[in-house]
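Input record (one chain):
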Amino acid sequence: MTDPTEQEIQQELSGLDPEIDLVALEKPRNDSLRLFIDHPHGVDLALCERVTRHLNHLLVDYSLEVSSPGPKYRRNATASESKESLQ
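The corresponding structure, as predicted from the sequence alone:
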């Protein structure tokens, strides 16, 4: 079993929603993956559940934790995203 990389998981998440950003991937134990995701419209429980279902093939070898990094650790919006949110 080869551990999935951030790039591989980001590519899979882009298939679900291209605006989902994998901020960090941690492996606290050999059988566990922790994903921190962000989205321009925020991260809620429903989005975390959609991501978990989309990555369900990983549940064969890992337990998954999917959450938001919180507002303090969000990546800065690009200039175009900032303009969109003001409109």
